[in-house]
Amino acid sequence: MISRYEYELTNGGTAFGAFNGDKLVGFGVLAHKFRGYDNDRLQIDLMYVTREYRRRGIGSLIMESLSTAAVEKGAKYLYISSTETESAVKFYTSHDSAITSEIDLELFEKEPNDIHMLKKL
C-alpha cells in the first residue's frame, strides 16, 4: 500500500490525511492517471478511515477534498473501484456515486471483485 501511495505522489497524484494529534486516522489518494473514453476521470486510488474514527465525518471531508482536487486537475468524474463491502458501497453511494457499466478494464483485472462506481463532479 505504501508503494502505491508513493507512486501516485511521485507521478502527480494527490493525497489528504486526517489526524488526531500526530496519529493518522484516515487518508485518501487521488491517482494521477486520467481514465475513461474521454480521459475525464480520475480514480480514488486509496481511501481509508480507521474503524474507531468512522461515522464522524472524516471520510466525507476526505471525499470532498479528493473531489475538489479532481476538479482542479480538470476531471469531470471520480472513478471508484470499491471493495465489495456493504459499508464501503453505501459510503460512496451516499456521496453521489453510482455503479457504472463503463468499467475500466485495467482496474477490473487488478480487482475483479470490486464494485466500480462513478461520481459526477
Number of distinct helices: 4
Mean pLDDT across the residues is 94
> Compute the gyration radius: what is it?
14 Å
N-to-C SSE series? HEEEHEHEHE
**Adjacency order of strands in the biggest sheet:** 1-2-3-4-6-5
Strand content: 35-45%
Regarding quaternary structure, what we see is single chain
Largest sheet: 6 strands, mixed
Are there runs of 5+ residues with pLDDT below 50, and where?
none
- For the termini, the CA-CA separation is 26 Å
In percent, how helical is the residue content?
25-40%
Extended strand count? 6
Notable characteristics:
alpha+beta; 121 residues; six-stranded mixed β-sheet
Description:
With 121 residues, the chain is of the alpha+beta class. The protein contains 4 helices and 6 strands, in the order H-E-E-E-H-E-H-E-H-E. It has a 6-stranded mixed beta sheet, with helices on both faces. Helix 2 links the parallel strand 3 and strand 4. The longest helix has 15 residues.
Summary, kept brief:
The protein is an alpha+beta fold. Helix content is 31%, strand content 36%. The protein has a 6-stranded mixed β-sheet, sandwiched between helices.
SSE inventory with pairings:
Blueprint: H1 2-10, E1 14-20, E2 23-35, E3 41-49, H2 58-72, E4 77-82, H3 86-93, E5 97-99, H4 105-110, E6 115-120
